[in-house]
Amino acid sequence: MHLVARLLCFALPLVLLAEVHAEALPFETIGEVTVGGRPESVIGNDQYLFASNLGTGSNPLGKDGDGYISKLSYTGDLIEQKFISLPGQLDGPTGMAFLGNRLFAADLDEVIGFDLDGVAAPVRVDLRSQGVSFLNDLVQVSDRHLVVSATNVKKLFLIDTVAESFLPIDLDFTLSAPNGLAFDPATDKLFVAANLVHNVGSTSNGEVLVLDLDVDSASATFDTRLSNAGRFLDGISLFGDGEIIYSDWVTNGGATGTLHRFDIDTLEMDMSTPLGLSGFADFHWQQGRRVLAAPNLTAGRVRLLSLPVPEPGTQWSMVVVVAGAFVARRVLGDR
């Protein structure tokens, strides 16, 4: 009995801690901003959020000049619906990234960088020569370089924003259709939310690819893969300490959008968090504010959600530890 009590003192808290950690994330809705059209991606700096929009045309990926980028506040206000809307310059903007005072957007077959002060002319990198028609997400990987996913040709490209040039990233394996991108500068690892087929299906179609990126040589090597990761993956982001989160449409048209997360080192999945979004595309996670800004694409809105502090499970973990120790002491005391 003495040995059992000692085991309880350690085992009970650990077992229950694992169960608490697997709970869905308790997001609280701050607001939902109507931006119109089809908001595909959200990104934020310290002050504002920006939402790219495929426009209102019958063909979301058409060269129709009706794309735009909206400016939002973190408290749920629409500051300017068409903050960036240049006729003939934005057709169907999707993923975005910041470099200095420029906001870069992937726009079907080119990457365009806009001066947020509206002073300098846009930077333009044209990738049409590569057979590209659907550039998808962007991520900063150095002080002058971005990586863009080209979903329709199943490739990644390294963009030099100073030289306004690009290089295909040399991979030693064939990618599935790459979508969302996240980069960890501490480890030079590039995380890719991808789909075997770029279509919302009824079976598990998504996978997360982990690549080791070498910016100097414009190459990447395969590290590992998280298969059967969802039905249709889109956005992906670093989250907290050692975790990745990514979005899953689940279905096309239903309010089924779900957030998944996993541990970077172990690739172990935590419990998913249903968010009830219709078209849960490329989101923005603001760690400092603990705010998730998520496109509700087919509804023409952006939803803002807050994750309370402390992170889920912290308070219950303390209760479990105390309870485990109390039980063990009672058993030992009865001896």
Primary descriptors:
335 residues; mainly beta; Neuraminidase; 2 domains; 5-stranded mixed β-sheet; 4-stranded antiparallel β-sheet; 2 helices; WD40/YVTN_repeat-like_dom_sf; signal
Please write the string of helix (H) and strand (E) elements.
HEEEEEEEEEEEEEEEEEEEEEEEEEH
Number of strands: 25
Strand order of the largest sheet: 14-18-17-16-15
Task: Name the average pLDDT.
Answer: 86
Helix content: 10-25%
Cα-atom radius of gyration: 22 Å
Distance between the termini: 8 Å
Profile the largest sheet.
Answer: 5 strands, mixed
The shape is globular
Judged by helices, strands and strand pairing, the structural class is mainly beta
Question: What is the CATH T-level topology of the largest domain?
Answer: Neuraminidase
**Name of the top-level CATH class of the largest domain:** Mainly Beta
Strand content: over 45%
**CATH architecture assignment name of the largest domain:** 6 Propeller
**Domains counted in the coordinates: how many?**
2
Count of helix runs: 2
Low-confidence stretches: 1-20, 311-332
Q: Please name the fourth-level CATH homologous superfamily of the largest domain.
A: TolB, C-terminal domain
